[in-house]
């Protein structure tokens, strides 16, 4: 249970990667409210997000292909609030335990989908959406 014994910065690359539960909740279009600074999530998927598998189709090159893809390892403390409240990185950063559906706890990679947490088959493509449509796609990332 390395996640209980190490801080995020102490984790190896493999440990760090295994913390991602594969929910895909960070792989949608997001906007920062200019007044409140709040991060607004939509259900519009990133162009690299595969809605069926709930995964990135080019994880290795994601930062180059999608410049605003969040590099979580480089986030500053105050930026962890940009992540969904269920995100393992945010939970550990806030000193909270992982949920029972997290694959590291359940031992089942599918448990994040079975628990209804992931965005598998819940996103839409933004390619043909107009600016005026986007407001209708704002969602609560933690529901
Ligand atoms: S929200 Fe967190 S746990 Fe879920 S896919 Fe993104 S980085 Fe991984
Ligand atoms: S580039 Fe990949 S990891 Fe980054 S937001 Fe898009 S689908 Fe998610």
Explain what you see:
The protein is of the alpha+beta class and 143 residues long. The protein has one domain (2-139). The protein is built from seven helices and five strands. The strands form two sheets. It has a three-stranded antiparallel sheet, with no helix packed on it. Strands 3-4 form a two-stranded antiparallel sheet. The protein is globular. The two termini are 27 Å apart. One iron/sulfur cluster binds next to loops.
Low-confidence stretches: none
Q: DSSP strand (E) fraction? A: 5-15%
Radius of gyration: 15 Å
Distance between the termini: 27 Å
The total tally of domains equals: 1
User: Count the helices. How many?
Assistant: 7
Q: Quick one: how many beta strands? A: 5
SS-based class: alpha+beta
Mass-distribution shape: globular
